[in-house]
Design a protein that fits this description.
By secondary structure, the chain is of the alpha+beta class. Helix content is 21%, strand content 21%. The protein has helices at residues 2-25, 81-92, 185-193; strands spanning 60-66, 69-75, 99-100, 103-105, 111-114, 146-149, 161-164, 177-183, 208-214. The chain has a 9-stranded antiparallel β-sheet. The radius of gyration is 22 Å and the shape is globular.
Length: 215
Amino acid sequence: MGIMIKRLLITAALIAPTLVVVDQHASAAPKEITCKPAKSVGHSPMKLDLPKIKKPFKDKTITLKTNCGDIVIAAFGKKAPLTVTSEVYLANNGYYNNSICHRIVTSGIFIIQCGDPTASGSGGPQWTVPDENLPTGTGNTYPAGTVAMANSGPNTNGSQFFFTYKDGSQLGPNYTIWGKVVKGLDILNYIASKGIGPDGTAPAQAFEIIKAKAS
């Protein structure tokens, strides 16, 4: 009996590596990204009343339905409460619906910028939000998947935000970090892989927010 058990153990040890190899080869291939034609065009921003600030501040989830698939953001309501309050309010009131992401940078800072209904880079709501949760330290302070506010100087955050789609962004510590992409980073990388469009600013692959919803 002792010999039989020993033989079985040896057999198992010999075939185990083969089983592992088979399992690795069976892993799912990366999902292919398919983008539908974008229909959104620049338009005047929706005029909304000021959002109400309510405590306690909680982390939220914002889902962006885009022409290339869903992007899900874990929003840091406890770290950037005023920013997330504003972003949730804009999302749930349709401000971001049918808007084009108007900017991409493919070197140095690796960002895709969205959130301006005018698609000009100058649109925004009737309020601004002070800076919050600015990065500290050195190194990879805006890792791939970071969601942060675009601005025109200190404490000028409106509706425009950007995604970093790649590590190593050389952005300075001047941008409120308010979320992280938990689904859809592959979409952002796909958009980035297509480069910059003929206008020298927008993604070559048109990228639009069809609908935004926060929960």
